[in-house]
Amino acid sequence: MYSEQVNGSNAALKVALANQAVARLEIDKIAPLVAGKVVSEIQLKSAQVAYESATAQVEQAKAALSSSRINYNFTSIKAPVSGYIGRIPSRLGSLVGPTDAIPLTTLSDIKTVYVYFSISEVEFLRMKRSGSNGGVDNKVELILADGSRYNQIGKVEAASGNIDRTTGSISMKAIFPNPNKLLRSGGACQIIINQPIKNIIKIPKIATKDIQDKIFVYKLENGSKVGMTPVEVDGETVDSYFIKSGIKAGDKIAVNRIDMLQMGVGVIPKIISIDSLK
């Protein structure tokens, strides 16, 4: 439709230019006759007015052609960036406009990918104290949806200036290189923030039990019985907790079949290393 408008406007301009040329010829024909007093001067003035009218029609036709080309150019959409294009719901010939609720498509530039996440106020303060300047230069890792570790290291680029009052968390943004285009917009993942921790007890998550938002372990007592002991967590990884209080170095905790254990139950302990659980 818009291409036909351009063709029609272009044809109208050619007609206007032809009429202008005819009007110019009429002036050139009458001018010598007026000089020789063969015809009256009024005929020359009429020819000049006709030429001016034809010239105005040419300008009008040029404006119409320009408007048609602008409308036609709106039918060709050029992306400002390169990337992966999503689904295109509209078909060729569909009439679309800026008020449409559904976008034409979604274009994702995934050379680098931003990952948005939140951390608690306690974790944020720990990052500050560890010398990472609020995470601006802190290196982070990514665990993908299938549990595998992403092979590129990212860094935290920005942190929110406000703490969410409802959750007590701070919004963060990390940037990751994506050379193999493995990461896609809208994907789910986990963030690992590596921080130096000294004099901390690390236990596997399989050795813990969650009861009413509290974390417990079964600690060996009196050599052959276990007791449920609450612990305070100071941080975590994908499969481990860092314990702040509740147990101390040298304590022995149950790591297998803890759902079958009860307070005071006698056991025959088998001492194993935490490293053997990896």
Description of the molecule:
With 278 residues, the protein is α+β, with helices and mostly antiparallel strands. The protein has three domains: 2-73, Orthogonal Bundle (Helix Hairpins); 107-193, Elongation Factor Tu (Ef-tu), domain 3, CATH 2.40.30.170; 201-277, conserved putative lor/sdh protein from methanococcus maripaludis s2 fold (Beta Barrel). Helix content is 27%, strand content 26%. It has three helices and twelve strands. The strands form three sheets. The chain has a five-stranded antiparallel beta sheet with strand order 3-6-5-4-7. Strands 8-12-11-10-9 form a five-stranded antiparallel beta sheet, with no helix packed on it. A hairpin with a 2-residue loop joins strand 9 (208-211) and strand 10. Helix 1 (2-35) packs antiparallel against helix 2. The protein is rod-shaped and about 135 Å long. Mean pLDDT is 85; it is low at 132-136.
Share of β-strand residues = 25-35%
Name of the top-level CATH class of the largest domain: Mainly Beta
**Within the largest sheet, what's the order of strands?**
3-6-5-4-7
Q: Helicity, in percent? A: 25-40%
Using only C-alpha atoms, the radius of gyration works out to: 39 Å
Mean pLDDT: 85
Question: How far apart are the first and last residues' alpha carbons, in Å?
Answer: 67 Å
Q: Which stretches are poorly predicted, pLDDT < 50 over at least 5 residues?
A: 132-136
CATH superfamily of the largest domain: Efflux pump adaptor protein, beta barrel domain
Shape descriptor: rod-shaped
The assigned CATH architecture of the largest domain is Beta Barrel
What CATH calls the topology of the largest domain is Elongation Factor Tu (Ef-tu), domain 3
Number of distinct helices:
3
User: How many distinct beta strands?
Assistant: 12
How does the helix and strand content classify structurally? alpha+beta
Q: How many strands, which pairing sense, and closed or not: the largest β-sheet?
A: 5 strands, antiparallel
Number of domains: 3
The SSE string, one letter per element, is: HHEEEHEEEEEEEEE
